[in-house]
Design a protein that fits this description.
By secondary structure, this protein is an alpha+beta fold. The protein is built from eleven helices and 37 strands. The chain is 28% helix and 29% strand. Strand 22 (524-530) and strand 23 form a beta hairpin.
Length: 675
């Protein structure tokens, strides 16, 4: 009986399911498992699926299958068990013994029907013998199962003690956190306080394992969502990469075309000068040939005179030669002023090299994530690293450490009225640049026809004021130290360099009066027009590449598109005060979403808009005195700031690179951070 039991426990039990082999299969590494067990394990291993092989859970060796084109569930059907395993199953397995009649009665020559099976003794027992079996003290803890129905003998996996190899591990020492046998308890753990049977701890262990399983499944779902999101980002980045490659090649082709135009102009000038010079030389040749002919004729005339016998003829010819008449008959050697003497091509290698060095096809701008946490509460403050948007806004004076689960606080206020202003200030839009390590706040100031910058120099607050000859509205960053500004009444887009003092670089005249503006690529802009209401894609010369008017002609979605910004995926966010909505458009003109809710989350007079590096959206509502937080897909999250937080008539909004948020309000800009 003991031999049969040990064979079953140590050689006929699947180590995956801990039961007697069910349709066993032996892999090339000679490890044997149930077919369903090894298939189930293989399905969890992508490397095995891709290799079309069964994977051994023990040694990780792969076994090639004969028909990989079949479903994975059928891969193990053709893998046979070793003849040793099969022989042991036939001889000692659950089906190897007669379970119909009592084994003890059969030894006495009787055929009593069996009703129970002892997995330890490996015998079938009748009602009478099972009662006797239970009276024997050493048999009382044997695993006995009822065979009243169709029975499959379940063999429990018994783990033997590594020290006392003939004893099963049945106890757990909680003090030492180890599983032990009876002898180990007596010898090594007699002074331990918590030594319990394994079976008594199984329910608690199973409960904990179920909880762990639920946590793992939850994490699995979260990671699947993350992987799906990252996969979507990869696809977007591949598309953006291909578009950028196309833009770079387009810029290169334009530069090559300009070089070719200069080449054609230079060749045309060379041909013109060469034709003139060659013409002059040919004219000289023709004149010379005529002179040769005349000289020949005069020489022949003199020769005839010499051979004549007429003295008077000789005298007259002599007189003509003395007077120079004979030579004058020939063609004069004309030396005109301004004739081309020589044509050369002088190449200024140094100048060409400098021009090529200065040639700029564009720049690669990389936007790094600044970990702007929208789950905290905004705070206005001076120094901060992360803006947390999920906590309640609070007014505060100073802050030193930023807690990612912090509260938004209005920490600083920038007064935008400066010397030279003729009326009260009205900042409409704002951008923050880091110039030479200095945070520089640049605003468009509508009432005083100027762009202003505010910064700190030598620990002193400073400002710069640049008049633009009209009323500026929208602003967007072109480079680290350059911005573009719309001037509506003069139909211009001006570019300004921020040093951090302001310097006017150029002014582009446009065909429409633009308000909102945002940079799409280093060579393209998006600008919004109110009349007609649309969003135009422009090149840097102001030429309209595409005009976007979403919706049907009878029901256009845009009415008063005041402010624009670009998302991290290259889409255009439009804050439309006329339709009281926020639209997300692709550069091709497709509508990604339209945020136009009703009720408590509705917009009354939306103005400024910005998008963070994490994709979240911030919108100001001028009439309701609040700043809204939307998700990247246009879902309402919460009111980040309200009038209770000191927000009054907010207009332009932006997020700085160091986690601060800037909001234009009346004649000032509020700086918000989190604590």
């Amino acid at each position: 009986m003991a031999t049969s039991q040990k064979l079953t426990e140590h050689f006929l039990t699947c180590t995956i399911c801990t039961e007697v082999f069910d349709k066993p299969c032996t892999l090339v590494c000679n490890h044997t498992f149930c077919r369903k067990c090894v298939v189930s394990y293989t399905k969890t291993r992508p490397e095995a699926i891709s290799a079309k092989s069964l994977l051994c859970p023990f040694c990780r060796k792969m076994t090639k299958v004969s028909a990989p084109e079949r479903p994975v569930e059928e891969w193990a059907d053709d893998v046979k068990p070793s003849f040793v395993i099969q022989g042991l199953l036939d001889s000692f397995g659950p089906g190897s013994k007669d379970t119909t009649h009592c084994s003890y009665c059969k030894e006495e020559g009787e055929t009593t029907p069996a009703t129970s099976w002892c997995s330890v003794c490996d015998d079938a027992l009748c009602e009478r013998c099972i009662r006797v079996h239970r009276r024997i003290p050493s048999f009382r803890h044997h695993d006995v199962v009822d065979m009243s129905g169709e029975t499959k003998v379940r063999v429990k996996r018994k783990v033997m003690c590594k020290i006392h190899k003939d004893e099963n591990i049945k106890y757990i020492c909680k003090d030492c956190k180890t599983a032990v046998c009876q002898t180990c308890c007596t010898i090594y753990h007699r002074k331990c306080d918590l030594v319990v049977e394994i079976e008594s701890e199984i329910p608690a262990m199973k409960t904990e394992l179920r909880r762990n399983k639920e946590d793992l499944l939850k994490k699995q779902d979260e990671m699947k969502t993350h992987v799906k999101k990252q996969t979507s980002k990869v696809n977007e980045e591949v598309t953006l990469y291909l578009q950028t490659v196309s833009n770079i090649k387009s810029a290169s082709l334009k530069a090559i075309e300009m070089i070719k135009v200069k080449e054609q102009n230079l060749l045309a000038e060379l041909k013109q000068m060469s034709d003139r010079h060659i013409g002059e030389l040919k004219s000289d040749i023709k004149s010379g040939e005529m002179s040769v002919q005349m000289y020949k004729q005069q020489a022949e005339l003199i020769d005839q005179t010499l051979h004549s016998e007429c003295d008077m003829g000789v005298y007259e010819m002599y007189q003509r030669c003395e007077a120079g008449d004979v030579e004058a008959v020939g063609v004069a050697d004309v030396k005109e002023k301004g004739r081309i003497a020589r044509i050369m091509f002088r190449q200024d290698t140094d100048k060409l090299s400098r021009a090529l060095d200065d040639l700029q096809l564009g720049e690669i701008d990389v936007l790094y994530e600044d970990v702007l946490d929208l789950k905290a509460i905004p705070v206005l403050q001076d120094t901060i690293n992360v803006l947390d948007l999920k906590v309640t806004p609070v007014l505060q004076d100073t802050i030193n450490v930023l807690n990612l689960k912090a509260t938004p606080v209005i920490q600083d206020t920038i007064n935008t009225r400066v010397a030279g202003d003729t009326s009260g200030a009205y900042p409409t839009d704002v951008k923050v640049l880091v110039v030479n390590g200095t945070d520089t706040v640049v605003v468009t100031e509508y009432l005083n026809n100027s762009v202003k910058s505010f910064f700190t120099r030598n620990k002193q607050p400073c400002h710069s004021r640049l008049s633009v000859g009209g009323r500026p509205w929208g602003i967007t960053m072109l480079k680290d130290n350059q911005v573009a500004v719309t001037v509506q009444d003069t139909r211009q887009i001006v570019t300004v360099q921020v040093n951090p003092d302001l310097v006017l670089l150029s002014a582009i005249t446009t065909s429409k009066q633009y308000r909102g503006i945002t940079s799409l690529t280093p060579s393209t802009l998006a600008a919004s027009s109110i009349s007609p209401p649309c969003v135009d894609i422009l090149d840097m010369t102001g030429h309209v590449l595409k005009s976007i008017c979403p919706g049907q002609p009878s029901r256009y979605m845009l009415k008063n598109p005041y402010f624009l910004c670009t998302t991290r995926t290259g889409n255009i966010l439009v804050c439309d005060s006329g339709s009281k909505s926020v639209l997300c458009l692709t550069p091709e003109g497709d509508v990604v979403f339209n945020y136009s809710p009703t009720g408590n989350t509705s917009l009354k007079y939306p103005r400024g808009i910005t998008s963070t590096s994490t994709g979240d959206i911030l919108v100001t509502d001028y009439s309701l005195h609040r700043v809204l937080h939307l998700t990247e897909s246009g879902q309402f999250v919460r009111n980040m700031l309200t009038s209770q937080d000191g927000v009054q008539y907010p207009c332009g909004v932006c997020v700085g690179g160091r986690g601060r948020m800037y909001v234009c309000m009346s004649d000032e800009v509020k700086v918000i951070t989190c604590k």
